[in-house]
Write a structure and sequence with these properties.
Blueprint: E1 10-19, H1 26-39, E2 43-50, E3 55-62, H2 65-72, H3 75-88, E4 89-99
Antiparallel strand pairs: 1-3, 1-4, 2-3
Helix pairs in contact: 1-3
Length: about 110
């Protein structure tokens, strides 16, 4: 689904990844991270897609940089990040962007 975001400005965290062959706990952890992110102050929404080639892009939207920093250091999220580095991803890149314009078709 397309996230419903407020009027800009706000921030987007773009997480691009290539999955490894390890599936252990990935789906459960991904679902838990989504639940947990929704509970975080400043969280605005998320969009995610993964292609058949394993390339995935998840964009989460945040009110401000302080909210992003708080999410980055949240304890369960830190453990998921560790597992991502050691088990679930062959490669990844995280980008943080300031959204200045937002328009589209509903």
């Amino acid at each position: 689904m397309i996230a419903r975001t407020p009027e800009p400005p706000y921030y987007a965290v773009i997480f691009t990844s290539l999955r490894s062959d390890t599936e252990q706990d990935y789906a459960v952890t991904a679902e838990r991270m989504l639940e947990l992110a929704r509970e975080q102050p400043g969280f605005l929404g998320v969009e995610s897609a993964r292609g058949a080639d394993g390339l995935g892009i998840t964009v989460s939207y945040w009110r401000d940089e302080a909210s992003i920093r708080a999410w980055r250091v949240q304890a369960e999220h830190r453990e998921a990040q560790r597992r991502g580095r050691t088990d679930w991803y062959r490669a990844f890149r995280t980008r943080v962007a300031h959204v200045e314009r937002d328009y589209g078709l509903e």
